[in-house]
Design goal:
- The protein is an alpha/beta fold.
- It folds into 2 domains: about 150 residues, Alpha-Beta Complex (Quinone Oxidoreductase, Chain A, domain 1), CATH 3.90.180; about 130 residues, 3-Layer(aba) Sandwich (Rossmann fold), CATH 3.40.50.720.
- It has 10 helices and 16 strands.
- The strands form 3 sheets. Strands 3, 5, 6, 7, 8, 15 and 16 form a 7-stranded mixed sheet that branches.
- It starts with 7 loop residues before the first strand and ends with a strand.
């Protein structure tokens, strides 16, 4: 079953990994082929994430050529032969998707990674929360089980994933220390729920964390920064605590000796979302919980800038340049 569809679409193609100039807007791309367990989604918005940059630059290996983008939201316009009976999805459903190829007008997504949006969650928020929301929620549930009474350090506490981590940790009863780069971002971190805020450009984060924790450090540190904060992140983690290093915004962590973990019996985790929701049951469980958090107002998605598809390079530059507060989106309805 399908709606009337055009033969071609517009999308961002990368034929060679490297600098931003390798991202090319192509207007004559054929619509993706829909397999028996796929849905074809007319995307309204796509989310901008660091993983897009890692794929484009070559930090993450991806077979080229490929269509960029890892998440989006829109309306199902075609379903595979086994989708309705197996997954309950149908043409006309408003959904969020976690799949490759979301910087395009249409994307074919495996139904097992498609989340139907409830009326209370807008399509725009659906596109914004899919990857970062599930990443943050699986981390506070599985990378380190956050619970009441714990003290947690969140790096980039005014950012997309960082801001959600703050809110989720507060929801779970933790005390949250947020590290940010500016006074402006400190205000956002405070709105996200941080109990304490450290301006890392002018203040020694480790010294402040130790002061706030009675020299014990944090039960867990969540950091998507990578290389530039890794040593401090490790130092801020208390004995038997957990360092969750989930990103590389400043570069990939290198020259690390595993023996450093034995100093305080620290657990080091380097998670990826896909490995937490690889099974359909896992995806349904975590996405259902995430949507409930949004519906109940336990978390909110802070939206940042909005760009047209032709301006995807500007969006990535804003992300890498630490100019963002909240989630950046690509508007595919223009």
């Amino acid at each position: 079953m399908s709606m009337s569809l055009p033969p071609t679409m517009k999308g961002v193609r990368i034929r060679q990994q490297g600098d931003p100039a390798n991202m090319v807007i192509e207007t004559g791309l054929p619509l993706p082929t829909v397999k028996d367990t796929d849905v074809l989604v007319k995307l309204h918005y796509s989310g901008v994430n660091f993983i897009d940059i890692y794929q484009r630059t070559g930090v993450y290996g991806v077979q080229v050529p490929f269509t960029a983008g890892r998440e989006g939201a829109g309306t199902i316009v075609q379903v595979g032969a086994k989708v309705t009976s197996s997954y309950g999805l149908k043409v006309g459903d408003r959904v969020a998707v976690f799949t490759q190829g979301a910087f395009a007008e249409y994307v074919a997504a495996p139904a097992e990674g498609v989340m139907r949006l409830p009326p209370s969650v807008s399509t725009k928020v659906g596109a914004a929360v899919m990857l970062q929301g599930l990443t943050a929620w699986t981390m506070v549930q599985e990378s380190h089980k956050v619970s009441s009474g714990q003290i947690i350090l969140v790096q980039a506490a005014a950012g997309g994933t960082g801001g959600l981590l703050v809110q989720m940790c507060k929801y779970l009863g933790a005390t949250v220390i947020g590290a940010v780069s500016s006074v402006e971002k400190a205000k956002v971190a405070e709105e996200n729920g941080c109990d304490h805020i450290i301006l890392y450009k002018t203040t020694n984060v480790e010294e402040q964390v130790m002061r706030l924790t009675g020299n014990k450090g944090c039960h867990a540190v969540f950091s998507g920064v990578g290389q530039s904060t890794f040593n401090a992140d490790l130092a801020c983690t208390r004995r038997k605590g957990t360092l969750v290093s989930y990103g590389n915004s400043s570069g990939v962590v290198s020259n690390f000796s595993i023996l450093l973990l034995s100093k305080k019996n620290v657990k080091l985790v380097r998670p990826t979302l896909a490995n937490y929701i690889a099974e359909r049951e896992e995806f349904v469980e975590r996405s259902t919980q995430l949507l409930k958090l949004l519906e109940d107002g336990a978390i909110h998605m802070r939206l940042g800038g909005e760009y047209e598809l032709e301006d995807v390079q500007k969006a990535q530059d804003a992300l890498t340049g630490q100019k963002t507060m909240g989630k950046l989106l690509i508007n595919l309805q223009a």
